[in-house]
From TrEMBL:
Gene source species: Cryobacterium roopkundense
InterPro entries xrefs: FAD/NAD-bd_sf (IPR036188), MQO (IPR006231)
Name of the protein this chain belongs to: Probable malate:quinone oxidoreductase
Pathway: Carbohydrate metabolism; tricarboxylic acid cycle; oxaloacetate from (S)-malate (quinone route): step 1/1
A single MF term (Gene Ontology): L-malate dehydrogenase (quinone) activity
């Protein structure tokens, strides 16, 4: 069945990004017709699936890669504060959706979980102490604790210090403002609400092509995976929220803004345990420092997870290399993504990141014994019999042109929008889901510049800090943290 009358918005991909944009547009433009197309038979089965990500609720409370040391050894809080600001926008939106009944009881998708950083060795202890000094007076990091006393750290999380060698230099920070988020559940709840409000959410629909019509709308070709039937739909605005599949779809669109971009896929695995005795001894998310040559998303961490009401522990990730861009896609994704315009940047990235490639290939062939050894850096008493190895989701980091190096590998997310604002898409990885709300608000401003001023009153209702910085106002930061904590049943 083909549709010639354009719908207002088509969202490609059934993950957290499409769900968030859909929720925003539902309130800002309730009369718009919105359709969602997901290539799999279920929603939130790629990066938004709870076992395909760490569910951290990235707020830079524990992730050291947001505060790297400068060549002179000094630290700046700018990036960490920026990430935390973004997460507060997501928290505010979720709290608004809970208050309006769009989302169910918040414990079904978000729970308070202390965020900790754990380091070993004299130099790392000094670094962590300095990091704490820089952050402790920041309004959004209020109450963060530091200790280099094994007894104190053991009180925070016993598994970390139990049977650790005496005299080893260790240190940790802890913030009770941290959370664990089940982004799979959150995504599904959002789509449930969208469906209740007339949004058509269609599964098993593979987008095979996008072509812009003469009137500026987009003609989208679809292949139904069940039955192999083909159809088309026209849309005034298209959002490509297809995770690792986004690059190929934006390339199909032919917009010049995608030129020069490539994707660098990284696979991963986690160790997981549901052993009640172990779970009871570790109720926190504890991040360490990445190994030499490791990508930022491979920072080791031991996490409490709450999925479907059940608690478990997750350790990893063990990074690796696969040419797939999605967990359920083809080994040809990487070679098929190469174009004349992105070959140069991709080769430059390969040339400047040889150590990373060597590290990833080494991780692919790492033995179970080496995986256990990495876990024992965090949990000295760990036994492989208590843990199972699970495959995580694929992460596709952005490769882009760079005047100095020819091409760079970029951490984080990149929003690509056409000059006329009729199509936009998202590339990249972490912090991703945790900052979905601010990313989508920014997308609205870029794609609908003639409407954003009229939307601002409602945006401030949904996101009270919209247009301001909480980090500039300690009283406002404290009030926002307390207000969202009350609604979401979190630690204030």
């Amino acid at each position: 069945m083909n549709s010639t009358e354009p719908v207002d918005v088509v969202l490609i991909g059934g993950g957290i990004m499409s769900a968030t944009l859909g929720m925003l547009l539902k309130e800002l433009q309730p009369s718009w017709r919105i359709e969602v197309y997901e290539r799999l038979g279920e929603l939130a089965q790629e990066s938004s699936n709870p076992w395909n990500n760490a569910g951290t609720g990235h707020a830079a409370l524990c992730e050291l890669n947001y505060m790297p040391e400068s060549p002179d050894g000094k630290l700046t809080a700018d990036k960490a504060v920026s990430i935390n600001e973004q997460f507060q926008i997501s928290r505010q939106l979720w709290a608004h959706l809970v208050k309006t009944g769009a989302l169910p009881e918040p414990g079904r998708f978000i729970n308070s979980t202390p965020h900790m950083t754990f380091v070993q060795g004299k130099a790392n202890v000094a670094y962590l102490r300095q990091r704490h000094e820089v952050l402790k007076n920041q309004p959004l990091f209020a109450g963060m604790e530091f200790s280099d006393d094994p007894a104190v750290i053991g009180g925070w999380t016993p598994l970390i210090t139990k049977k650790r060698p005496t005299g080893q230099k260790i240190a940790a920070t802890r913030s009770n403002l941290g959370t664990d988020v089940d982004f799979g559940a959150l995504t599904s709840f959002m789509f449930d609400d969208l469906a209740r409000h007339g949004v058509e959410v269609k599964m098993n629909q593979q987008v095979t092509d996008l072509t812009q019509n003469t009137d500026g709308s987009w003609r989208i070709k679809l292949l139904r995976q069940v039955g192999q039937t083909r159809s088309t739909v026209n849309a005034k605005f298209v959002f490509v929220g297809a995770g690792g599949g986004g690059l190929a779809l934006l390339q199909k669109s032919g917009i010049p803004e995608i030129k020069g971009f490539g994707g660098f896929p990284i696979s991963g695995q986690f160790l997981r345990t549901t052993n009640p005795e172990l779970v009871a001894q570790h109720q926190a998310k504890v991040y360490g420092k990445a190994g030499v040559g490791a990508p930022p998303m491979s920072v080791p961490h031991l996490d409490t997870r709450v999925v479907d009401g059940e608690m478990s522990l997750l350790f990893g990730p063990y990074a690796g290399f696969s040419p797939k861009f999605l967990k359920t896609s083809t080994w040809l994704d990487l070679p098929f993504s190469i174009r004349a315009h992105n070959l140069g940047p991709m080769l430059a990235v390969a040339r400047h990141n040889f150590d990373l490639m060597k590290y990833l290939i080494g991780e692919v062939f790492a033995s179970r014994g080496s995986k256990l050894k990495a876990l024992q850096e965090f949990v000295p008493t760990a036994k492989m019999a208590d843990w199972e190895l699970i495959t995580a989701g694929q992460r596709v980091q952005v490769m882009k042109k760079d005047a100095a190096k020819g091409g760079v590998l970029q951490m984080g997310t990149e929003v690509i929008t056409s000059a006329d604002g009729t199509i936009a898409g998202l590339l990249g990885a972490s912090p991703g889901a945790s900052t979905a709300a601010p990313i989508m608000v920014d997308l609205l401003a870029r794609c609908f510049p003639d409407r954003i001023a009229g939307w601002e009153p409602q945006l401030r209702t949904m996101i009270p800090s919209y247009g301001t910085k909480l980090s500039d106002d300690p009283a406002a930061a404290a009030a926002s943290l307390a207000a969202t904590a009350e609604v979401l049943n979190l630690t204030a």
